[in-house]
Write a structure and sequence with these properties.
Layout (H helix, E strand, L loop, with lengths): L4 E6 L3 H13 L4 E6 L2 H10 L4 E4 L8 H10 L6 E5 L4 H9 L4 E4 L6 H39 L1 E7 L5 E3 L1 H6 L11 H6 L3 H17 L2 E9 L6 E12 L5 E10 L1 H23 L3 E6 L4 E4 L1 H9 L13 H10 L2 H15 L6 E6 L6 E8 L7 E8 L1 H22 L4 E6 L4 E4 L1 H11 L15 H17 L3 E8 L5 E12 L5 E10 L1 H51 L5 H30 L8 E4 H11 L1 H6 L3 E5 L5 E4 L1 H17 L8 E9 L2 E8 L6 H4 L20 H11 L3 E7 L3 E9 L12
Parallel strand pairs: 1-2, 1-3, 3-4, 4-5, 22-24
Antiparallel strand pairs: 6-7, 6-10, 8-9, 9-10, 11-12, 11-15, 13-14, 14-15, 16-17, 16-20, 18-19, 19-20, 21-23, 24-25, 25-27, 26-27
Amino acid sequence: MDTKIKILHLEDVPTDAELVGIELKRSKLSFERIVVDNKIDYIRAIDEYKPDIILSDHSLPSFDSLEAFEILKKSDLDVPFILITATISEEFAVEIMKNGAADYVLKDRTQRLPNAILNALEKYRLEAERKKYMEEVIANESLLKEAENIANIGGLDIDVKTQFTKWSPGLYHILGLDVGEMEPTFRNFFNCIHPDDAFKVKADLDNALLNLYSISIDFRIKTYKTGDIKYLHAKLLIDRDKYGAPVRVKGFTQDITERKLTEEKIKEASETQAAILNALPPNIVLINEKGKIIAVNESWKKMALFNNLGIPNYGVGYSYMALSEKAIGVDNITSIKIEKGINEVIKGNTKEFVMEYASLGESDWFMIVVAPLADNTHKGAVILHINITDRKLAEASLLKSEANLRTVFENIDLAIVLADANLNVASFNSNASAAMLKHFDKKLRVGSPIISHFPKDRRASIKQHLDLVKEKHQVVAYETSTISENGELEWHDIKWVGVVNHNNENVGVILTFKNITEKKNIESERENMTADLAQRIKDLEQFNYIISHNLRAPVANIQGLAMLLADMQPGMPESLETLRALGISVDNLDKVILDLNQILQVRSQVNDQIECVSLPLLVDEIAVGIEQMIVKNKVEIITDFDEMDELYTLKSYVYSILQNLVVNSIKYRRPDADPVITITSKVKGERLLISFKDNGRGIDLQKNGSHVFGLYKRFDWSVEGKGIGLFMVKMQMESLGGSINVRSEVNVGTEFTLQFPLSVKWNAPVTVR
C-alpha cells in the first residue's frame, strides 16, 4: 500500500496491545495505530481519527465488542471491524460475522492478523466499487427512464415469429400503467387504441407488413385506468429476412397530446379571431407589404354596399390607397398623410399611425389606426376606421362643462385636489396650490402621488384615510392643526371623498380643506367663556359656602361677645375674659379672610407668559427651598423625567403644586420609615402624566375619598394644618386645563397623578379659571 493504514485498536490490557503491535511490525505492514481502552475515547477516535480499520477486544470493563460494533454501525464511518479475543464460542463467532464484522482473530494466533487486515480492507474496497457500479447502473436506467418520461416517448419490440413482445417503461407510462402492471403483448397494446381509429391503424399495419420497411401513423388511445384520451405518433421499423418476410417489428411511440391540443386551440383561436374581427364595429382592412387588400371584415363590406362604392370583391386584391379617397371620403391632402403613415408602419419605422379626420361634405368624424401585422413571417398592416362622431360631440360638450366647472373650481373658498384611481394628482385649484406651498413647502404637480405632498409623519394616517375612502366608500372628515410661519396655530377642516362610477367602483378621490382658524378661535373663546362662567358659578358657590360656614361662627361669636360687653361695667373681671375671647374670634375671622384672599387670587387674571419649564430643575428648586425640612426628616426624592423633562406651562403654578405635595408627603410621613418620594413623567396622547408617589401614612379613600380635595377637609389631626393645600392643588391644576387623581392605601403610601395638556400655544398669556 502506498499510504499507511490507520488502525484504531480497542484494548484495555496494555500487554495484549503491545503483542498486537509487535506482530503488525513483524509483518512489515505500513500502518499507524492509536490504542483506546474506554467508550468515550473510542467514540471520539471514530469521529476525529477516522480509522481505516478497527481492531477490538471482546470484553472490556465498561462495555464489550458487540456494543463497540453497534457504535461503529451508527456512525458515518464504513470500515472493517475485526474482533481480537482470547476465546469465543463458535455460535458467537457466527453471530458477529452475520452482523457484519469482517473477521475475528484469537489472541494466541495473532500471526494471521496482518493477512486478516489486508483481506478485510480488500473486501471492503471491492464491495465499495461494486456499490458504486450498481449506483451508476441504476442512475443510468433512471436517467433513461426520466428521458422517456420527459420526451413522452415509449418503445415496443415484437418478434413476429414467436410474438414475444417487450414494452419500455416509457410505453407503460404513456398507457397510464406502472411498469410490469400488464403483460406486454401487442394485443394488449392494440386494445387501448380508440375504437374510431382502430380499423385504420390495423389496415395500415397489415399493408406495412406486406411490403414496407417502415410506417408512421397518428392515432388516439384510451388509457387503461382513467380512460383519458391521448394522441400518439408511432413509427414502426420492420426487419425482414432474406426472403422479404417480416421477422421483427420495432416501434417508437410519442405522446403528442399536448401538440394536438395546441393545434386545435390555434385553429379555434383563429376561428374566434375571425369571428371577433367580423363582430367589431370599425371598418377593418388587412393589407400586405405592397399595399394590396388581403382581407376585410363584415363592417367594411356593409360600408361598401351602403355607400354603393362598386368595389369588386369589396376591394380584396386591389390597392388600398387607390380606393381610399372614394372608400373613406377624404381629400387629397389627407389621403397623402394617410398613405405616408401606412408606409412608415409597413417599413417598421413606426409602431403605430393614428389620425383623426372629418368626412368630406358631412359632419361625421373618423379615426384611422394603422398597426403592423402581428406575424413575423409576413409584412403588412391592419387598418381600422372608427366612427368617433359621438366622441367629438361629447368632447366639445365636456370642454364647455369643464370651463364652467373650472370657473366654480377657482372661485370657491375651498382648497380642492382631485386624484385618480391610482391616487395620483389629476387636478387642483389655486387655493390648494397656495396652501400646500405655505404649510408643507410642497408644489402640487399633476401625476405625482397625492400622499407625497404631506410630511412623512402624517403619511401613515393619511394612507389609512385613503384606504377607508377607496375600499369602504366612506367619507373621512376631521379637523387638524399646523403651526404657521409666525408661530400661530392654524386649523383646517379636511374631507376625503371617493368618486365612484355607475358600477360603484372607485375611480378617484377628492380632497378638500378649508382654513377654519377664525371659527375655531371663536369656538375656543366661547368654550373658555362657558368654562369661565361655570367656574365662576362654582367659585360663588364655594365662596357662599365659606361665608355661610366659615365666617358665620366667628361673626356670631363676635356679635355675642359684643352684646355681653355692652351689659358689663368697665373693670369687671368677666370683661377681660370676654375681651380675650373676642380677640380669638377676630383672629379666626382674619384667618378665614386670608384664606379667601388666597383662593380668589388664584382665580384672578394671570399675566404670566407660558414658558418652557424644566421639570428636573423645578424639583431641585423646591428641594433647595425646603432643604432644612428635607434634611431634618431624611427625605429621599427620586425623579425620572426620561420620557419628557420639559413642559410649556405656568411655572409658578407647577412649582406651587409640586411643593404642596412634597410638603404634605413629609408632614404625613410614617414614623417607622424615612420618607421616599418618587416623581416620574409619561406622555399619553396629548397629555403629560406626572406621577407623584410617596410611602407615607396614606389616606382611607373608602371613608374619605369624596373629600380629599375639599376645602378645610382634614383626615389626620396629629399634624398641624388647615385643610386648604390639596384644595389649592386641585384648583391650580384645573386652572391650567389639567386634572388630578389619587390612589392611596393606609400605611403603604399615596400616589397623585397630575395630567397636563400638551397642546398649549407658546408665548401666549393664559387666563386661568
